[in-house]
Amino acid sequence: MKTKILFLILLISSHLSAQEQKMTTAEIASFKESVNVVSKKIKTLSTDFVQYKHMDFLSKDIETSGKMIFKEPNLLQWQYKKPYNYSIVFKNGKILINDEGKKSAMDIGNSKIFARINKLIIGSVSGDMFDDKEFTISYFKLKGQNLAKFIPKDGTLKKYIKQIELTFDKEEATVVQVKLLESSEDYTRIVLKNKVINAKIDDSVFTN
Amino acid sequence: MQKSTIQFLLINCFLAIFIISCGSVTKNYTPKKVDKTTYEAPYFSDATIDYVYKANISVYGNELSGIFIAKKINDTIHRIVFTTEFGNKLMDFEISETSFKVNSIVSELDRKILINTLKKDFGLLLKKKYQIQGQFENDSFDIYKSTDGNRDNYLFLSKKDQKLEQLIHSSKTKEKITLTFSSENNIFAEKIEIIHQNIKLRITLNYFKSEENSSN
């Protein structure tokens, strides 16, 4: 019996310690400052990613993976390589899609929602998303990491995304994980790895 | 894009009523004595499997793609979810032989005609039990006829290995929807096509190999 209680206490306490801790106002300021310093320096960024789509009713997450390339001010390529080839480029008000060799283009022109999505993706990966007008933001500390949670204020965006969570490496102040929550049960978790900042990337990369 | 698609769908549905071609679906097949009274379709029936497919939808020249997920959640009900490649959920249905529930759908796709079309398509895709009323054959297939309201379903089982390779949903005179299945083992369909004859709609599903499967 005693061992059972001890085990239970251990279980609870380890669970508690793994949980996130709220940042103080001073910690928030210094965290935002360090992220801003790093993200301002980003001219180009390329990273591998693994995307896990979690839905409550599935027995396991749906896993896809590939590479993301960004170049200032707003060239973006999001390329899935496994288990299929699908690449989407955001460029000069256009979305270019290459789906297993089948190409299509969409003019997004002045579409506000696409401009917002574009900004959101770039912001998520670079960490430059601390816009209090767009989001209600809360800040937490984890072991070796910082966590910022963004709740969209805009009704249209809120319909699609309930919350965005960005996890930052504490030392490097760069994003290591993006989590998009659709509801409490369903989310998309994107883990970024092998990140390369400011390597020379030619504009021709952003063709599809 | 959506609005014009819906208009097209509507216009074409009306056109379809006027353009009636004659001739029965079975005119090229030889009638046979019925050798079974029921048939159970093999696909989508294992509750332990997440059926995940890359989906391409072609509707009046417009291309839509994403991820199609089907899962048997109890004895009678399947959950069907369609997401973008990024994982955003576009629609989420629960469907059985007798019920249909929309858990969620993005407002851009929330059109009755689209939902009813998909309800019909997914109903055919997931239907398990068929009562057989007639039987035919051609060179390659044993063809079973099963009545479905005022329509008929024709099930094409390959003569070689009795795999379900095609399902034709038709009126008394004309094919309406054709489903083709490519399956290696007759348990799991690697590729599925749902083709509408009276509207320009084609749904292609390619089984989504997970990391562990693709490395095998």
Automatic annotation (TrEMBL), chain A:
InterPro entries: LolA/LolB/LppX (IPR029046), OM_lipoprot_carrier_LolA-like (IPR004564). It comes from the Bacteria. Residues 1-18 form the signal peptide. Keywords: Lipoprotein, Signal. This is Outer membrane lipoprotein carrier protein LolA. It comes from Flavobacterium geliluteum.
From TrEMBL, chain B:
Keywords: Membrane, Transmembrane, Transmembrane helix. The chain crosses the membrane at residues 6-26. This is Lipoprotein.
